[in-house]
Design goal:
The complex is a heterodimer.
Chain A: E1 2-7, E2 12-18, E3 21-27, H1 33-47, E4 57-61, H2 67-84, E5 88-91, H3 93-98, E6 103-109, E7 115-121, E8 124-132, H4 137-140, E9 148-150, H5 156-168
Parallel strand pairs in A: 1-4, 4-5, 6-9
Antiparallel strand pairs in A: 1-2, 2-3, 6-7, 7-8
Helix pairs in contact in A: 1-2
Chain B: E1 5-10, E2 15-22, E3 25-33, H1 35-38, H2 46-68, E4 77-83, H3 87-104, E5 108-112, H4 113-119, E6 134-139, E7 144-151, E8 155-161, H5 167-177, H6 184-192, H7 209-214, H8 222-234, H9 240-265, E9 270-274, H10 281-293, E10 297-299, H11 303-306, H12 310-322
Parallel strand pairs in B: 1-4, 4-5, 6-9, 9-10
Antiparallel strand pairs in B: 1-2, 2-3, 6-7, 7-8
Helix pairs in contact in B: 2-3, 4-12, 5-6, 5-8, 5-9, 6-9, 9-10
The chains are: A alpha/beta, B alpha/beta.
The structure holds zinc ion.
Chain lengths: 197, 345
């Protein structure tokens, strides 16, 4: 199986994995997902000496993460899959950071002074993802049982491996709804403002 | 080379559009709109629009391919609106278009959304060529611009634009003042039918001689909106049809007056309408009247090509391919204020 994996929940990370061959491109820049996404896909394929036609599964990180960037990777994953007529699977981006750990609490910064956390035991999600703050994290999560893993970046290579573990188990990963965890910032209009005295 | 087969993606505002053209022939034009989700807010909410683009992406791509009855591998190029528009919304389309182009191994064109509205006229049912030069009046909830187009690739000039609200936004805001639903345009159009357009003399923004010096072809609708609000608040016997008709008349008057003046002053015998507001009955009627009085040919593409759509982006892309223009670099950024003289990146 050849997996193209994309995560834009923090920076931009793209990886291709086939048997023992891997290639990955990542940047921590959290403001340039739309710029990097195309060239990163082209570059990992070229580095692994693969053609787009060789890819048979796309995996995208569904967040949590700042929405604008997060959507870029999911949109790219969907479009690549449509272009090649192949399936696309979505998993939590936190799954990538939890891989290869016994018990942990993955924590990422989702801006506006909020953190997102998910707890895992042996790579299997226990609770979350949910939002908290720096000062409430320790009350929301038993960090003694689930030691904190503060992820400043998500690796698409880890994402590909986490997804392939779950695909091998037969999990249904076809749901591609981003893990927004927050409603859009918008309040219904309160009626027009008065302009006359 | 046979005519290029191009897929275009549009996501600059609240419409997710995927269009497919072969040269100047329209093969598919699929549009998903999040308009209803914005209704309760009285205007487009960028985050809601961006979420809706992602949800609609797969469905619109699949539907466009079915409608065009083509194989994706036959596509010669992918085009996408790179701006102007809402940045977070544009990024969904651009992210998708880049990955689609790479997956197909085909060139990508990041193009100008506003010039795309002009490109819509290339997809004429009558098979006629787009005739240039033309003045283009592009009016929607997101933009109000007057363009002089001498050449679609290398000579598009901005004559003027709104300095505050877009005309479509003014319709939405006035609709709220009159307790009419969103989007305001069609509802104001409906109510205005029974009103007297001359009942209230609302201001015509930027038409006084002192304003014309600096803002000859620019528009302003915020003063008009305030005048309507004041009228609604202070009037003792309020006639909603009269307010709607008089407001609509003020908008139609300024838009068409400046557009026709631009044609006459630049010696251009053609005016093209684009954008969703081109659906407004009074604006179309007044444009027709004033154009025919001045020997100007008025062109209005079918409504599905006037509102934001992917076919117009594909048409502009196909034109760029046919003209031998180099594709965009894969690492271009979206530009929410992309100037009209940048036709492609
Ligand atoms: Zn538009």
């Amino acid at each position: 199986m050849t997996i193209l994996a994309i995560d834009t929940s923090l920076g931009t990370s793209v990886a291709v994995v086939r048997d023992g061959v891997v290639a990955e491109r990542s940047t921590a820049d959290a403001r340039s997902h739309a710029e990097h996404i195309g060239s990163f896909i082209a570059e990992v394929l070229a580095e692994a000496n693969l053609s787009p036609k060789d890819v048979d599964t796309v995996v995208v990180g569904l967040g949590p993460g700042p929405f604008t960037g997060l959507r870029v990777g999911i949109a790219a994953g969907i479009a690549f899959a449509v272009g090649r007529g192949i399936p696309v699977a979505g998993i939590s981006s936190h799954d990538a950071a939890a891989r290869d750990r016994e018990s942990c609490c993955v924590v990422t910064d989702v801006r506006r002074r909020e953190l997102a956390w998910t707890t895992y035991r042996d790579g299997v999600r226990v609770a979350g993802p949910a939002l908290t703050t720096e000062s409430t994290l320790a009350t929301d999560v038993d960090l003694a049982e689930f030691p904190e893993v503060r992820a400043a970046a998500i690796s698409a290579l880890d994402l590909a491996r986490a997804a392939s573990d779950r695909l091998a188990r037969g999990d249904d990963l076809s749901r591609l709804t981003p893990l927004y965890l927050r409603a859009p910032d918008a309040t219904p209009g309160s009626g027009p403002k008065r302009v006359s005295q | 080379m046979t005519e290029p087969l191009v897929l275009g993606i549009e996501s600059s505002c609240d419409e997710t559009g995927v269009g497919i053209v072969r040269g100047r022939t329209l093969l598919a034009n699929v549009i998903a709109s999040s308009m209803e989700e914005h209704a309760v807010f009285g205007g487009v909410v960028p985050e809601i629009a961006a979420r809706a683009h992602l949800e609609a992406l797969r469905g619109t791509l699949d539907a466009a391919m079915r409608e065009a009855n083509i194989r994706l591998d036959d596509i010669d190029a992918v085009a996408v609106a790179a701006g102007p528009g809402l940045a977070g919304a544009l990024m969904v389309g651009v992210g998708a278009a880049k990955a689609l182009a790479v997956s197909l191994g085909k060139p990508l064109y990041g193009v100008n959304h506003l010039v795309g509205h002009v490109g819509a006229d290339m997809l004429r049912q009558d098979g006629g060529e787009i005739e240039l030069p033309t003045v283009a009046l592009l009016v929607s909830g997101g933009h109000t611009s007057l363009l002089l187009v001498n050449d679609l690739v290398n000579d598009v000039r901005l004559l003027g634009e709104t300095i505050d609200d877009a005309a479509g936004e003014a319709f939405d805001k006035v609709a709220r003042l009159l307790a009419l639903p969103y989007p305001g345009g069609p509802h104001i159009d409906r109510v205005a039918t029974d009103g007297d357009p001359a009942a209230i003399r609302f201001p015509r923004g930027l038409t006084l001689p002192k304003d014309l010096e600096r803002h000859r072809y620019d528009f302003s609708f915020s003063g008009l909106k305030t005048a309507v609000a004041r009228h609604v608040e202070t009037s003792e016997a309020l006639s909603i049809p009269d307010v709607a008709a008089s407001f609509r008349e003020a908008v139609a008057d300024v838009l068409t007056r400046k557009a026709v003046a631009a044609c006459l002053e630049h010696g251009v015998p053609r005016l093209l309408l684009g954008g969703g507001v081109a659906a407004n009955a009074r604006i179309r009627a007044l444009a027709e009247e004033r154009c025919s009085d001045n020997g100007i040919e008025l062109r209005v593409p079918p409504l599905a090509l006037c509102t934001d759509n992917g076919a117009m982006i594909a048409a502009l892309g196909a034109h760029l391919v046919a003209r031998g223009i180099a594709p965009s670099p894969l690492d271009f950024a979206v530009d929410s204020t992309l100037p009209v003289d940048v036709v492609s990146l």
